[in-house]
């Protein structure tokens, strides 16, 4: 029982990341009808927003500290971050420590801007072209984006820790009446899951309860009719693209403490996220979220020792295997709508 | 001749001359000169040109003709490599049985994957092929280690049985792949002044197979079968209501292109007898997509050009470092020199992928027919210029 | 006994009874029109005939064999060709290639792995395709891409493609929809010529009464998924039920 709870918990954080990326992919696909292979790159750029902010916060100037000596007996040169000067050392430390959560504020405008530029500059011209062309051009864009990041940040993963308060783990087992250390779960992963739940909830609420969201949903259902009503759907779709980019970016920002960001993390997640979208059903937002968590949890179950003993290697292929089975038995995915990308 | 039209025959002849003279064409700069780093006429790279040419020709039969975009074609390449290495281990170091087996195994494997994947089309087909290839990669990397060598890859060992070679291999060294005694790694050198040209057995063997593959591709393109494949891309509905069943056609195209990939994989193993799971990773599948699109999807020569271009970039452009760049711009004043180097540097050397990505995007956006379409456009421009000149008074020569 | 016998065919989409209880008999070598107001179930009926839809009830027999449960290409191989409302042709291929494909399909069956031969050296097929293009007055356009043809030419090409399969039954789904008057008249002339020169049965679904009354030998009027009447054109013209269904006039 404890092992099962542990696996479900383990699946949640990866599932959250899948769900967030798949949600953005589905928003773009559902509204714009574009298959966006560069979406993983947006996730990756989000992660590098966190890296960038923590670097900005630690930009320092050098002062000579007369009270300390180095090993030659000369006065020690110390790097002092500018934030110390502005906020004092204690507050400055807290700010640096909280770089990752603070990056959320930094990433939202950056990601929306990137998303809007991408849509206006490139994607817009591909609405009428075949899906294969969309895949190809966004695939090219993904390569370009990841190479740009690699040029500026190098090829190695950059560790970006969570705030001190969230390091360490939480003993779930004790709370549920098991022995100590049976179910331990890092705090940050809990934070990530809660964060993902909030974002997903916010996106759904936005689509459900605002006029803007209503129009977008109507556009997803039947673009032409909405266009006939004289509503400028294109402008809204641009905003949706920005929103989807922001969702992917935030997923990336918060993922940095779990997995040190590197330039190819976007592609790694993209392949799986596409599988998630297809399993959930192209164009279905609840499907994307459901499939994201489902596959994340399935993946962690498949990594259990007992399961691997029974079916060696199953943890490596479970997601793909499920995707193949779903695609062949339920062509529209778990919750796909009729008429979306049917052949 | 050869059952080809004059135009196709010319094309085949050009490719024939280019591949046979490649050691000269790719080594235009004398040894030791500043430009020698642009020489691509060494065996390793030349082999890669033709082998990836085969891979791309095969991929183009599927994607170029039927429009089905497979994102998992590298799986067949990997399977081909593994089969060939196993043949070297078990039967003989002769490359013929190894390559025959790799084509056959890749063919069977593609029947299986194709049969399932082709039940869907469009993006679903792409995802299904991707999923199968990633599964193959993951399995080859982990569980199937006894068959695939896992992380280290599948290698030859001294005590492999090699039934046919038998006693010959007990000499103490691991034998190398060959063709009836002709070792694939053997090369002859031709020195002409400062120039050195390398003629490698493995390269010529691969080149001949590439020519055969290219010839077969031309025949397929011009056959009723090839026309049916183009018809599938154009309008499946009409295809159905014309009494034709698209499914076996697409499956046949999928299997043929899978066998081409297996052939390429087998040749790779024949040139260098080891096989690793990374050959099946999805980025390798992405690479053949890039090659085909870049060169010109649906054209005959395009995929070969694209494969050559990408492999050239990967091996030559990627080696240019900032010192070399400073050397090039040394004639400029210092400030401008540094500026030029700073501008150019991100796009070459280790950053060549960036150039590739940009070029690829530009091709998809502006030049859907790839390099071949670009060439045609330029040719048309010149022809137009020529005709306007011809029309000027005084030129009475008849046009050829 | 007609060449096409439709018996008690019904088809329901969710809550909508698209076809009620359709009985229809198309006599061999006749031109039979099926007319009816929008939503009468004409297209559903046609789709049931060619295998795109499978009816819930009833039977469809072509030349004594059931077509139900067969795939579209199998039904086509039985001798039923279909012309679509918007011309369905192979836009990326040349006109000549468009015409060759049905010739291959008719001669070699639903699948042929003829991957080595040069298709242009298959004299029999090329000649057949050229003859048909000649008959359609399109010989001069044979090297054009089919997508660049005019609407009328696309229609002629599609009809030619269907004919080159030598079908026994030609189904036409509103062949003149969206056409200018001149193109419509050309199409009528073409269909008349086909009818006169070949042993072929034509079933036509049409909105345009001008087309129907110039061609049809028998007419079935469909309304709300069931046939109202079936008769000769002259009788249909004055039939009160037809006037009611079409014009909403009280009988």
Query: What is the overall number of helices of chain C?
Result: 9
Task: Supply the number of structural domains of chain B.
Answer: 1
Which CATH top level class of the domain at 22-90 and 150-247 in chain C fits?
Alpha Beta
Shape of chain B: globular
> Helicity of chain B, in percent?
55-70%
- Structural class category of chain C: alpha/beta
Low-confidence stretches of chain B: 392-400
Enter the CATH topology name of the domain at 22-90 and 150-247 in chain C. Rossmann fold
Q: Under the CATH scheme, which architecture of the domain at 22-90 and 150-247 in chain C would be assigned?
A: 3-Layer(aba) Sandwich
Low-confidence stretches of chain C: none
Using only C-alpha atoms, the radius of gyration of chain B works out to 23 Å
Name a few traits of the molecule.
heterotrimer, B: about 400 residues, mainly alpha, ABC transporter involved in vitamin B12 uptake, BtuC, two-stranded antiparallel ribbon, 17 helices, 6 strands, disordered C terminus, C: about 250 residues, alpha/beta, Rossmann fold, 6-stranded mixed β-sheet, 4-stranded antiparallel β-sheet, 10 strands, about 35% helix
How is this structure best described in words?
The complex is a heterotrimer of chains A (343), B (400) and C (251). Chain A has 343 residues and is mainly alpha-helical. Chain A has one domain (2-53, 106-329). Helices cover 69% and strands 7% of the residues of chain A. Chain A has helices at 2-32, 39-57, 82-97, 99-121, 131-153, 172-175, 187-209, 211-221, 223-228, 233-255, 265-280, 285-302, 305-310, 314-329; strands at 60-69, 75-81, 169-171, 184-186. In chain A, strands 1-2 form a two-stranded antiparallel ribbon. In chain A, a hairpin with a 5-residue loop joins strand 1 (60-69) and strand 2. In chain A, helix 2 packs across helix 10 and helix 8 crosses helix 10 (233-255). The mean pLDDT of chain A is 82. By secondary structure, chain B is mostly helical. In chain B, the strands form three sheets. A two-stranded antiparallel ribbon of chain B has the order 1-6. In chain B, strands 2-3 form a two-stranded antiparallel sheet. Chain B is globular, with a radius of gyration of 23 Å. Residues 392-400 of chain B have low confidence and may be disordered. By secondary structure, chain C is of the alpha/beta class. Chain C has a domain at 22-90 and 150-247: Rossmann fold (3-Layer(aba) Sandwich), CATH 3.40.50.300. In chain C, 37% of the residues lie in helices and 24% in strands. Chain C has helices at residues 42-50, 72-78, 95-108, 123-135, 151-163, 181-197, 209-215, 233-237, 240-247; strands at 4-13, 16-26, 31-35, 57-62, 65-66, 80-83, 169-173, 201-205, 218-223, 226-231. In chain C, the strands form two sheets. Chain C has a six-stranded mixed β-sheet with strand order 6-7-8-3-9-10, sandwiched between helices. A four-stranded antiparallel β-sheet of chain C has the order 2-1-4-5, with helices on one face. In chain C, a hairpin with a 2-residue loop joins strand 9 (218-223) and strand 10. The longest helix of chain C is centred in the last third of the chain and has 17 residues, at 181-197. The relative contact order of chain C is 0.18. The A-B interface holds A 35, 122, 125, 131-133, 135-137, 139-144, 147-148, 150-151, 267, 271, 274-275, 278, 282, 312-313, 316-317, 320-321, 323-324, 327-328, 331, 341, 343 and B 67, 69, 116, 119-124, 126-128, 130-132, 134-135, 138-139, 141-144, 282-283, 286, 289, 293, 346, 351, 353-354, 356-358, 360-361, 364-365, 368.
